[in-house]
Amino acid sequence: MKFKKHVFICTNERPDGRECCGEKRGMALVEAFKKEIKERKLAVEIRAQRAGCIDVCAHGPALVVYPEGIFYGKVELTDVVEIVENHLVNNVPVERLKINV
Fold first, then answer.
1. Rounded-to-integer distance, Cα 94 and Cα 54, Å
2. How far apart are CA 76 and CA 53, in angstroms?
3. Which end of the chain has fewer CB atoms at under 10 Å, N or C?
4. How many CB atoms lie within 10 A of CB 44?
5. Integer Cα distance of 89 and 10 in angstroms
């Protein structure tokens, strides 16, 4: 199945105890995105899923949206609705959360 948008949320955890996205709400963000997408009946077009490290640890918790390849950092649970509405539905990235990689 081909999705119009695909959200990969970092849930990586480092075995050496250094801070990482997984410890900072990674799985909570995955569940929040899945819930919001399902409630809006967008699951046929948009998929959100956990990912390993996406190499932007200093900006975590982080995620990336494809096909655009836009990375977001310091994402809070309260940002999920805004990202879904603005970026995933209306194709307008959330500038205040974007990070350059």
1. 19
2. 18
3. N
4. 10
5. 21
Tokens of 31: 């569940």
DSSP notation for 72-88: E-S--GGGHHHIIIIII
Instruction: Enter the pTM of the model.
Output: 0.91
In one-letter notation, the amino acid at residue 9 is I
Integer CA distances (angstroms), 60 to 19, 23, 38, 40, in order: 9, 10, 25, 26
For tokens 């999705």, the residue is: 3
Which pair of tokens denotes residue 98? 């974007």
Could you tell me the two tokens for 20?
């990482």
Domains of the chain plus CATH, in order, are 8-99 (3.40.30.10)
- Provide the 8-state DSSP code for 89: I
Query: What are the pLDDT digits (tens) for 45-93?
Result: 999 999 998 989 889 899 999 999 999 999 999 999 999 999 999 999 9
